[in-house]
């Protein structure tokens, strides 16, 4: 009997050992993986949606998609489209005149092509500021994604410096990494963010935090990024959550600046985007 019990115990132990899965390997460092992708003529595609959170209410506010083109050191160019998740029927009765037309324009898709630090803006509200026959507004040191980009993903994972900043103190997860990073730290590390938000966050806003979670593939390349951050970072209320998907790392990309119907000033003669009358309250409210 003793031998039988011993045999059963040994067999059970062996079965348990066999059934115990091997400890999962830690995910590969995405900063290293992304840096290997930074080759001229190569890039990555992305798509994302932004949700505004106000108490228990969650509403999709913006949808965006596009392509990033790399250089040896980072991002050489980008081509993105974005649209506010609104329809004219949702806007109800609009003010007459220029303000009403501007709000209608914001309900249309906008496109931004950025070469180096020069942005070319088209569609959306930009149509109302351009003279007849002009399609694009050329903005040196312009925003990376037009107006919708301001509400898009604040973290650009094609920037190794941004990833390194995020990974300080981050935790590994079954699918990648997660953590919380100060808005001010990302603002300092990311040239992309400094060109995306239309104004610098206040000192108080910089102390706020961006919560994030990165999913990586077997090579360590990001496939998904979800962030949540306070609306005060961009001068608003509540908070925003952005869910970004990355596909086709290493794809061949060639983004060119538009050459036809390009204006370097608005129809009123101005060229300062920061002074434009943008009725954001009518959208977010």
From TrEMBL:
This is Lipoprotein. Residues 1-24 form the signal peptide. Keywords: Signal. The keyword Signal applies.
């Amino acid at each position: 009997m003793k031998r039988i019990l011993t045999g059963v115990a040994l067999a059970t132990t062996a079965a348990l050992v066999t059934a115990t899965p091997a400890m999962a390997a830690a995910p590969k460092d995405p900063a290293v993986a992304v840096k290997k992708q930074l080759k001229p003529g190569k890039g990555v595609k992305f798509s994302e949606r932004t949700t505004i959170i106000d108490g228990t209410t969650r509403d999709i506010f913006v949808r965006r998609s596009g392509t990033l083109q790399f250089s040896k050191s980072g991002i050489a160019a980008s081509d993105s489209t974005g649209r506010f998740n609104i329809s004219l029927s949702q806007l109800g009765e609009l003010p007459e005149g220029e303000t009403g037309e501007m709000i209608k324009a914001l309900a249309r898709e906008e496109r931004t092509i950025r070469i180096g630090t020069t942005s070319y803006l088209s569609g959306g509200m930009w149509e109302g500021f351009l003279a007849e026959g002009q399609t694009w507004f050329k903005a040196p040191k312009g925003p990376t994604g037009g107006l919708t980009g301001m509400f898009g993903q604040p973290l650009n994972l094609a920037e190794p410096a941004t990833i390194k900043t995020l990974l300080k103190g981050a935790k590994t997860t079954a699918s990648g990494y997660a953590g919380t990073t100060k808005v001010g730290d990302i603002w300092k590390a990311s040239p992309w963010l400094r060109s995306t938000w239309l104004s610098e966050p206040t000192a108080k806003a910089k102390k706020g935090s961006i919560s994030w979670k990165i999913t990586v593939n077997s090579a360590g390349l990001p496939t998904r990024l979800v962030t949540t951050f306070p609306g005060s970072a961009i001068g608003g209320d509540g908070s925003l959550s952005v869910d970004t998907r990355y596909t086709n790392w290493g794809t061949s990309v060639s983004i060119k600046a538009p050459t036809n119907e390009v204006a370097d000033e608005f129809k009123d003669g101005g060229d300062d985007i920061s002074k434009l009358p943008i009725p954001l309250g009518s959208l977010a409210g």
